[in-house]
Design a protein that fits this description.
There is one protein chain. With 281 residues, this protein is of the alpha/beta class. The chain has one domain (6-279): Rossmann fold. Helices cover 40% and strands 19% of the residues. The protein has 10 helices and 10 strands. The chain has helices at residues 13-29, 53-58, 65-69, 78-90, 102-109, 123-133, 146-152, 173-188, 203-215, 251-267, and strands spanning 37-40, 47-49, 98-100, 115-119, 139-142, 161-165, 193-200, 221-227, 239-245, 272-279. The strands form 2 sheets. Strands 5-4-1-6-7-9-8-10 form an 8-stranded mixed sheet, sandwiched between helices. Strand 6 (161-165), helix 8 and strand 7 form a beta-alpha-beta unit. Helix 1 (13-29) crosses helix 4, helix 1 (13-29) packs antiparallel against helix 10 and helix 7 packs parallel to helix 8 (173-188). It starts with 12 loop residues before the first helix and ends with a strand. Its EC number is 2.1.1.266.
Length: 281
Amino acid sequence: MLSYLHSFHAGNFADVLKHMVCVHTLRYMTQKDKPVFYLDTHSGAGAFTLSDNEAQKNREYENGIGKLWALDRANLPESIIQYLETVEDFNTGSELSHYPGSPWFAQHLLRDYDRLSLFELHPREYQTLSKNFKQDRRIHIANSNGFQACISQLPPKEKRGFILMDPPYEVKDDYKQTVESLIKAHKKFATGTYALWYPVVERQRITQMEKAFVKSGIRNIQSFELGLTSDNGSRGMTSSGMLLINPPWTLYAAMEEALPFLAKALGGSDGVYRIQQLVAE
């Protein structure tokens, strides 16, 4: 369908969860001197201006990065501070005017000897992505199917990798395809760290997806969710989640500290979160 544009949703509460997890993971993986391969299967444009018409239409960032930006950072959980400092690096001065996409977080946090592959199928998004990142020799950019890339790019020569899958879920088959693609990818590269973002629109779909991963035989799977309200009887995306395979061993404790705070800060008394070890190591 190729109608989804993330610019309408940049910086919303779902981005806060996704990018906080990404920042924590990338910072953890770059503690070692060994090179890292980063694969972004659905990259989008990679950078957003919050004053643009698309971001201004629903102003979703106001219920995400906008609320966090104004907080006193002295007593915030460490993972939130690190996330906010990284977003701050993307902006000039103290004003929140721009929001980075996942490719920029990776570009910014990875080192000169690391390698990045960005895939985007949407024609307009691909053109913008190329414009934003073509000057970086570490980065390969392709206008092709991210699900297929998840298979074709693995295993990486670096033998260490972080694979982010963030599909638009424009069609219902995307849920099934994400599971199938990640299971195949894991068979080729079992030691990689995989992160899958998903929207909570119909809880049944998420339950089915989690059951499929549990039955796959893959070990060490964790899931984290953050929402503005309970999904019981609600319409639309009330929460979003990140499912990780082989996450950093520090991530679970970091989310135990950060998610309760974020649920209250962004959702007030209606805010919700979920932390679960789906499959043990």
